[in-house]
Specification:
Length: 217
Amino acid sequence: MREDLADNWHISSEPEDPVTERSAFTERDAGSGLVTRLRERPALLVSSTSWTEFEQLTLDGHNLPSLVCVITGKGPLREYYSRLIHQKHFQHIQVCTPWLEAEDYPLLLAGSADLGVCLHTSSSGLDLPMKVVDMFGCCLPVCAVNFKCLHELVKHEENGLVFEDSEELAAQLQMLFSNFPDPAGKLNQFRKNLRESQQLRWDESWVQTVLPLVMDT
């Protein structure tokens, strides 16, 4: 890990400023304890998968920005995809596949990640991915693979993006992380839209959406 950070991210084990602690993403003022994100940092992408043939993971690093991809979860094809990722020899993409405890997962989504990716597809076309619900609950924008009822949750160009295949996902990542971090970019706009959507609480939404249907019967 030390060699990878030094070779690919130009981060040494000893910070240049002795009163500042740095990671690949943040720096912490030792005096005040204030933690701020680095301007020149890689983007942090997170995906949660059960590592099955129904959630096929393929990564093409061509022309992508510097990324750290955290792919969480357990499943039968985890070792297969880990070997496949290792064979890619990415130059500016670091992939890690940890298993996170329940209390750590929301910290990753809400406090660290820049974008979530959902590879869930529904065999019935009637169920919505709970991993996207988790991400939206933490105001994390999502790129999600399309299926029949996904539009009920992911609003394309409003709270995230919908893609059909790996090529379209790669194009979306290039677009979203162009000039990253960009305060005026789509990622921040998606986050703003997610925060605004959370102003409508569950009971208020029920009154607006379900009650009229019940009253008509």
